[in-house]
Amino acid sequence: MLNLILFGPPGAGKGTQAEFLIESFGLIHLSTGDLLRQEIAAETKLGKEAKQLMDKGELVPDHVVIEMIKNKFAAHPEANGFIFDGFPRTVAQAKALDVLLEENKTPIKAMLCLEVEKQELIDRILFRGKTSGRSDDQDVWIIEKRISVYNKKTAPIKEYYEAQNKHYPIDGMGRVEEIASRLENTVRSL
Ligand code: ADP
After folding, report:
1. Pocket test for ligand 1, best of 124, 146, 147 (most atoms within 8 A of CB)
2. At CB < 8 A and 24+ separation, what contacts does 150-156 make?
3. Which of 48, 69, 115, 163 has its CA 20 to 30 A from that of 88?
4. 65 lines ligand 1 (CB under 6 A)
């Protein structure tokens, strides 16, 4: 199995690049953001609670997203591998993911971290907000909040994977196709 984490701040292009990696390596895409938005669209209790936090730029509680990931992971026993997008977002989530993958004897191969300048992130999210319909993409203050939550709670995970020699920084500036080939070359060299 080829298990990859696609990591980076909000607006770094994880969803866009995940599409290319899925295509090239036949992976299953597990995006906690997408899973949460499905819950919101279905108007479940979980979705309603998550929306309140997401609209403020806050993280959803660890146990909620860990449970979602466990369920989706178990639903694909035939998979060639998984691409985790938007997860893990805290060190507690990273540890829970390691436990899950150890139980299934299929560890993370690499954590691919897209590096993008802050102003570019804001510009990309505002541009996406024109068509995404996402309420958290509309307001600069919420976007700033998401970036600051990323820097405080999520970026420290880099050290967690660095200690396992699995952290691969990738230049996330430039054309979509250029970034896709940087990612693909890195994965091929693993
Ligand atoms: P982005 O990477 O652009 O912020 P996502 O779709 O990954 O977009 O996430 C949107 C929101 O969903 C986050 O701001 C957060 O509130 C919530 N969320 C997604 N994944 C997680 C997670 N692993 N842990 C906690 N909250 C999450």
Report:
1. 146
2. 150/9, 150/10, 151/9, 153/59, 153/89, 153/90, 154/9, 154/89, 154/90, 155/9, 156/91
3. 48
4. yes
Pairwise CA distance, residues 99 & 104, whole Å: 9
Q: Indicate if ligand 1 lies below 6 Å from the C-beta of 9.
A: no
pLDDT tens sequence for the chain (190 residues): 999 999 999 999 999 999 999 999 999 999 999 999 999 999 999 999 999 999 999 999 999 999 999 999 999 999 999 999 999 999 999 999 999 999 999 999 999 999 999 999 999 999 999 999 999 999 999 999 999 999 999 999 999 999 999 999 999 999 999 999 999 999 999 9
